[in-house]
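Appendix C. Worked example: S-adenosylmethionine:tRNA ribosyltransferase-isomerase
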Amino acid sequence: MNVDLFDFTLPPERIALRPAAPRDAARMLVVTPDGLADRTVADLPGQLRAGDLLVFNDTRVIPAQLEGMRGSARIGATLHKREGPRRWRAFVRNARRLRDGAAIDFGHDVTATAHDRAEDGSWALVFAGEEPVELLLERAGRMPLPPYIAGKRDTDARDAQDYQTMFAAEPGAVAAPTAALHFTPSLLAALESAGVEHATLTLHVGAGTFLPVKAEDTADHRMHAEWGRIDPATAARLNAVRARGGRVIAVGTTSLRLIESATDADGRIQPFEGDTSIFITPGYRFRGIDGLMTNFHLPRSTLFMLVSALMGLDRIQAAYAYAIEHGYRFYSYGDASLLLP
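Step 2, the predicted output written as structure tokens:
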């Protein structure tokens, strides 16, 4: 499909630079075949049915943004995928100053050497020493806010909390599964009281989620792989919910993509551990999920293509136009949508 079909104009003032407080006070646009409804995230228990199950991503964002020096050259690096105990694939700013084996000093006694430049321009960074890389990043790294936020303000201490979900447990993501940022313990308790269950899986979100689609046709776009896991008990539980007539609602496109990667042709969700580079565009037949709660996405992005596949391109374009007109806040720290096809 032509990528221009997934374009729209977003006024810059619609980009949220801070999350709502409290988190579940964010607005939520409910989109169904019957139309649109304005709600808040706190209204979610009333929008679902007893027996439904929400699936959250329990990945934890690491401080994956690094600034360093190679000689007199300033080098910026954003880690996006672990390739080994001390080796991470990274997108590098000022990469023309690197060569294979070049050492980068990130300060705080943190150094790495660059190896194996890939076709997409990324480098493998191998960190020196014996300390776990996670500890090195705690010293030298900072939270990797999306460029549409980081370009407008500096990362600060608030982001260490704001850009982490209440489910964050498994370190490895370089971007938050942002739909889950809206959840609080009190909202989870209200959902449980309404008979709505929840489960978790793990998908370590990579920096590729922010990369623009540069191809003119979706068939020519290559997704970056991300590592995920659904354990056997969780897979069995999701299948049991659907078998008894409940709905599996993915919270976030990351949860949805992993479930769909793990679902076989008969609609059975299988245990999964490994990389996925699934790319969902209109025409895709969803097999493992029955709905999606997600934030509002960038124009021409793979995530906007995904929600268009779920709800239909015309319906999602109309929903986004409504959200823009009625003051919804967009992107990672913005408001939510509940998509029930």
